[in-house]
Amino acid sequence: MEMAERFSYYAIAGNLIQYLTKELGEPVVAAAKHVNTWRGVSALFPILGGFIADSYLGRFNTILISTFIFLLGLILLTISVATIPLHIRPTVFYLALYIISIGEGGHKPCIQTFAADQFDEDSEEEKQRKSSFFNWWYAGIVAGASTAILVAVYVEDDVSWTIGFSLPTVMVALALVVFLLGLRGYRRSVLVGSPFTKVAQVFVAAARKRHLSENLDDIGVCQDQGEAKIRSLARTNQFSFLDKATIIDAEDESCKTRNNWRLCSVNQVEETKLILRLVPIWFSVVPFSVINAQLSTFFTKQGNSMDRSLTSKFEIPAASLQFFTGLTILTALIIYDRLFVPLISKLTGHPNGITMLQRIGVGIFTSTISMVVAALVEAKRVSVALDHGLINNPKATLPMSIFWLVPQYMLLGVSDVFAVVGMQELFYSQVREDMRSIGAAAFLTVSGIGNFLSTAVITIVQSISSKLGNQWLGDNLNQAHVNGFYLVLAALGASSLLIYIWFAKGFIYKELESEDALEDTEWGGKL
């Protein structure tokens, strides 16, 4: 199911800027903004989808309904390209795109979480397999995306946009049928009400008891007795102001039933702390997605101006170079899982080689390096245009192979193996069990906000450079200074890495309370 969804998404997103500029006649900068905005919206809807899944419908039902919506959007998109008159085509086309976004909003936060839920966390063997699951799940995603880049993009560029957009429609329809075949064998989580309500209760209860002492050693606190299917968390001293929500005062003792807005269990408070710990991490990884957004916008337009010929009769579609990102991810994931983890774990003593936070940090660093490499290659491309007198001819094919762009695509692939998979596992494992769809959605919104910020960065760079009399971004990339834009992104990535390291050093990982552990056991996670 997820492979089909990724195939469909990249069959559209991977070549969308080409359709907008060539078929709908949009300027390059405007098209880049539209692509980033759509990708951003597509990555924000999962917050709503995750909330609905965890609070009301359950993950399976949400997947089912959202897939039908997704399929409806794909059908409308194909119709808009095939039969809708050109003067109203943009309206119908964008409507279809955002229907697809709504469908993605329910599908994306639930499908991976639903798959991970099929592992039994009470089994040590299955817990170990779950860590590898995130690597191989991402490999499947990349396989679907890479196939789209190779097949669908080629069909769209060289055969027909209608046929190209029909392919994902057929893929999703077939995947839905296959998904339904396993209906009776799936494990489904039990709904326990709105998880946001439980978080709000902790803050309200702590605020009501803000005048009480924070020393809990000699005070009665509310334990987790009577709460079904709770995996008790070890108590931590971080965000200790919230611990007041667990104190049993005179008013609580006089009540026959517990008022959840005055008194919360230790476990409920610790689950709320999990969310607070992820907030600064979330903010510090957003610039990573700003860098990743360039892969389907300016990278593609750069390649379109370069020599794309493999033979005298065959040219590579510029967007197809994204295949090298996918190929790098697939290769690096195998190396990471089969060689890197066993080797490094012997040195570090960590079962996964390095921690999730360390993995993300390596990914952010690699993405920053990719922007430096991209800037150097772009400077070379512009110098070739200048040397051959093509600086004023944006439609000319430069005598410079498109394969010069391969290193920057590959570096982004390596960064994904570390950062993206690390974030997927972090936002799944470090939230309460009934918020895992929302945790997955939080990870996805990193990409969404990153795409919106990419649009904002483009606007700011364009505005400042225009005022200085030398526009960095424009329809004629030969006269532009895209290399300077990439260096701005590299500086943004380097700054975010420093901020990320600072926050990561203070992060405390989730730890379950052992049966014989003391209530005040604290486990501090290391970066």
From TrEMBL:
It is a multi-pass membrane protein. Signal peptide: none annotated. The chain crosses the membrane at residues 63-84, 136-155, 161-183, 316-336, 357-377, 409-428, 440-464, 484-503. One of its GO terms (biological process) is oligopeptide transport. GO terms for molecular function: transmembrane transporter activity. InterPro entries: MFS_trans_sf (IPR036259), POT_fam (IPR000109), PTR2_symporter_CS (IPR018456). It comes from the Eukaryota. Keywords: Membrane, Transmembrane, Transmembrane helix. It is found in: Membrane. GO terms for cellular component: membrane. Its main location: membrane. Pfam families: PTR2 (PF00854). Belongs to the major facilitator superfamily. Proton-dependent oligopeptide transporter (POT/PTR) (TC 2.A.17) family. This is Proton-dependent oligopeptide transporter family. It comes from Dillenia turbinata.
